Amino acid sequence: MSYTRPTIRHPDAGKNKLGYTRKYYEGSISTLCAGCGHDSITNAIINACFEMNIEPHRVVKLSGIGCSSKTPAYFLGKSHGFNAVHGRMPSVATGANMANRDLVYIGVSGDGDTASIGIGQFMHVVRRNLNMVYIVMNNGCYGLTKGQDSATADKGSKTKKGNPVALESIDLCELAIQSGAGFVARGFSGDKKQLVAMLKTAIVHKGLAFLDIISPCVSFNNVPTSTKSYSWVREHMEVTQSFDFIPFQQEITADYRQGTSLPITMHDGSTLNLHKRKDQADTTDKAAAIAELEKARQEQHILTGILYLNPESTDTHEILQTTEKPLNSLTARDLCPGNAVLENINDTFR
Amino acid sequence: MKQLERINDFVIRFANVNGSGSASANNLLAKVIYRLGVPISPKNIFPSNIQGLPTWFEVRVSERGYLGRRGGVDFMVAVNGQTLQQDYDMVQAGGYFLFDSTRPLPDNCTRTDITIIDIPLTRLCNQEFSDARLRQLLRNIIYIGALAHLLDIGLAPVQKAITTQFASKPKLAEPNLRALEIGFNYSSENHDKSCALSVRPSDAVGDRILMDGNTAAGLGALYGGATVVGWYPITPSTSVIDTFERYAKRLRREEETGKKNYAVIQAEDELAAIGIAIGAGWNGARAFTATSGPGISLMSEFLGLAYFAEIPIVLVNVQRCGPSTGMPTRTQQADLLACAYASHGDTRNVLLFPSDPSECFEMTAGAFDLADRLQTPVIVMSDLDLGMNSHLSRPLSWDDSRSYDRGKVMSAEDLDNAEKPWGRYRDIDGDGICYRTYPGTHPDKGAYVTRGTSHNEYAAYTEESQAYERGMKRLLVKWETARALVPCPVISIKDENASIGAIYFGTTSQAAEEALELLAEQSIPINSMRILAYPFQKEVFDFIDQHEVVFVIEQNRDCQLKTLLAGECQVAPEKLDAVTHFNGLPITATIITNRIHTTLLTGRPGNKGGKQ
């Protein structure tokens, strides 16, 4: 871990449209191991929010327990955060989102937190299609308890301890697609450019946006025999497409090859331009997305990119038909029917 | 044989098959007696089953207004072949046994001390009605008709009740009215003057309503301003949420758009249910969940988080028989310790103990103020008897000038004007309660990370022993503040010089108060205290101090209230004498008086040889 961070920044450091520098989006110093993939993801979140001109205090950060769940302290220091109990971030996020639909909710979890103890809450928050970004920092092991295999560790792969994983691994992206997520992507902590664009798209997506980000554990699971190591991922990563995210009201300047590009309009009017290979299935086809993931798994490839997208998904508030106002802003006047109504109710119990 | 002869003072029990539509018929009769102004106390003794198993419905009719279960059966309506023998044996000497004589009574039903009232319910019903589904329902109405005759109620009050019940479906009223008459006429012709139990119109009910506690708690949450509900179905708490949602659908719509000013989320389990409430409570909405025994065990981890991170939530616990799955459809007060100290580590939770529907309403609504003020979970401790049975109760009322106490919350303006630097866990006022902020309040002030890990005054993670200890001690200061805020016990001093006291709470109260009245009539004066909340106040300690022996009456095996009192009040355990009852049926006055008599007669330390 680092102990210090330079406090003086270059005077010409860029400011975003809100007049904030990138530093304004940082949090406290990370206490994770030096070289931890999670810190790269933290930085990608900071970049995405900075570049998207999001006001930090309009973001809520939530997490469970584990190394990954510590990271909300390391980004967006001006945002409220909630470090919940192990595997239970999704329910807390659900309640928080119900209370105030106007904020941006970013949940950070790990493969232990999501694929084991919290798999029920994970699948159900996806099913509910809560309007949030759900990030799993996936390193295939339990770092904070010194490297036990997690449920995403690939069968047959070997961690630092040297024993091949005996059980089948869980593909969280497949689960997310099956459970109804409208946005499912897989990234790699070592591919920051893709990660930032992916995060931006996820933030504007309405409904649950799930990102499974392979993030090597340098202390316990970065040996060449592990499928979650830097070297293995770099060798086996197959980028499914490149894409540009063009925020709403920004002039489209990206240069994309004609014929291979698929522009998708996001909920807020932003545009996502996907450039995909010719043989690749439509990203909005659920069954095809799952089939490609299974195929890649058999071929020992890691597909990265936006794997599935349904830009028309409806979130929990729309499903429940709640008011457009944040529920936490309603007062007794909106909420309490008053004594006259109660007297009528009494009469129905006579 | 001497027949029981009583006016407005008896117990009638119906033995039915679950899912046969008996509940609505039986309730109809209960409601008719209530509408005649006679106090009743109906109890549904039902199986954990949807259809086919035995179920009983018991109504105590009491002009004197005793609302606890009495025990014993004066009049049995036996329409369940499975339990016929057991039901027959249960009738008190001098009592009455009405059965469906389409099939004869078994040969071993040879009692000569009860009056047998044979009515061929099935035959009468099948002669008149052809629709198979209707037959099952109307057979029940036929015995209601017979009872209208036997109990001297008359046809008119029941006819009126049926007409009211089917006001929107007059077509259904017709066969019901017909069935009613069939039963009434058959009984008049064949059993005239057979029964000396009688219902006479009275004014003993007053303006009281007849409502179950879960309905009242659901309405309490609605009036208390709850907007976010996380829940998971579990008997006997489900109808708290059902009620909230049913009324919210009607009363909580946004005028212009018709959209909902509330969100009810049926979660995947109890963990998520309380997690949702915690997330919403943290984010400034009033939020609650309702559950029962097993749910409390599952929610315990989250309760610890809400206690330690100081997040307001309301939890309605409708207690049932434990341990484990226990008897899901029977009542108990056995979650006291589990709730008071829910979660690992040093945790304490505020508990409220309603004893009737109006208190379910007031305490649930009030729990939101308490939770917001104290920034901690508040648990409303109802039980199956209170929650699912109808009870006579003061009408619900709401003071329209009342406003919600949202507690110590900093607005953007407050943050800008604060003289001292803001820290989420800084105790500025010395009452142990700190100022919180909602997410999104201010661009650069008031943000913090809420965590279940140890934290310092500024909400930063710390493993520094002193900071941890300061936080834990401050929570004790807050606990003292809670002590001053929760409702005080109701103390009744019958005799200034009495050396015996009795303590009880919740649904034990009706039976306990009846028992104490009976004992007073036998010149055994016992002062009483009904506890309404935990933490206990000075009044509770003083009451125990002022008496030599204090009976603690409760519905669990392990004397949980007694344990809680002994621990929290630092009293000598032998001063408290447990009166427990835990078979799953509501406690009765007889159980209590017997137990107290035995103790006083056999003598025990502290009561001077047992004579008072």
Tally of domains of chain A: 1
Q: Which sheet architecture does the biggest sheet of chain A show?
A: 8 strands, mixed
List low-pLDDT spans of chain B: 605-612
Q: What is the helical fraction of chain B, as a range of percent? A: 25-40%
Q: What average pLDDT do the residues of chain B reach?
A: 96
In angstroms, what separates the terminal alpha carbons of chain A? 69 Å
Question: What is the tally of beta strands of chain B?
Answer: 23
Q: From the helix content, strand content and strand pairing of chain A, which structural class follows? A: alpha/beta
Distance between the termini of chain B: 39 Å
CATH topology of the largest domain in chain B: Pyruvate-ferredoxin Oxidoreductase, domain 3
Strand order of the largest sheet of chain B: 11-10-12-13-15-14-21
State the helical fraction of chain A.
Answer: 25-40%
Mean pLDDT of chain A: 90
CATH architecture of chain A: 3-Layer(aba) Sandwich
Q: Quick one: overall form of chain A?
A: globular
Which CATH first-tier class of chain A would you pick? Alpha Beta
CATH architecture of the largest domain in chain B: 3-Layer(aba) Sandwich
**Fraction in beta strands of chain A:** 15-25%
* Biggest β-sheet strands, sense, barrel of chain B: 7 strands, mixed
Word description of this protein:
The complex is a heterodimer of chains A (350) and B (612). In chain A, strands 2-1-3-4-8-7-13-9 form an eight-stranded mixed sheet, with helices on both faces. A three-stranded antiparallel sheet of chain A has the order 10-12-11. Chain A has one domain (22-328): 3-Layer(aba) Sandwich (Rossmann fold), CATH 3.40.50. Chain A has helices at residues 37-51, 67-70, 89-99, 111-115, 119-128, 172-179, 192-204, 230-236, 286-298, 316-320, 332-335, 339-347; strands at residues 59-63, 80-83, 104-110, 132-138, 141-142, 148-149, 183-188, 208-214, 237-239, 241-246, 261-265, 271-276, 302-309. With 350 residues, chain A is an alpha/beta fold. In chain A, 30% of the residues lie in helices and 19% in strands. In chain A, helix 1 crosses helix 7, helix 3 (89-99) runs parallel beside helix 5 (119-128) and helix 6 (172-179) packs antiparallel against helix 9 (286-298). The longest helix of chain A has 15 residues, at 37-51. Chain A starts with 36 loop residues before the first helix and ends with a helix. The radius of gyration of chain A is 21 Å and the shape is globular. With 612 residues, chain B is α/β, with parallel strands linked by helices. Chain B folds into four domains: 6-198, Pyruvate-ferredoxin Oxidoreductase, domain 3, CATH 3.40.920; 211-393, Rossmann fold (3-Layer(aba) Sandwich); 412-470, no CATH class; 490-610, Rossmann fold. Chain B has 19 helices and 23 strands. In chain B, the strands form five sheets. In chain B, strands 11-10-12-13-15-14-21 form a seven-stranded mixed sheet, with helices on both faces. In chain B, helix 8 (238-251) links the parallel strand 10 (228-231) and strand 11 (263-266). In chain B, helix 1 crosses helix 5 (155-165) and helix 16 packs across helix 19. Chain B is globular. The model of chain B is unreliable at 605-612 (pLDDT under 50). The chains are: A alpha/beta (350), B alpha/beta (612). Chains A and B meet through strand 1, strand 2, helix 3, helix 5 and helix 10 of A and strand 9, helix 7, strand 11, helix 9 and helix 10 of B.
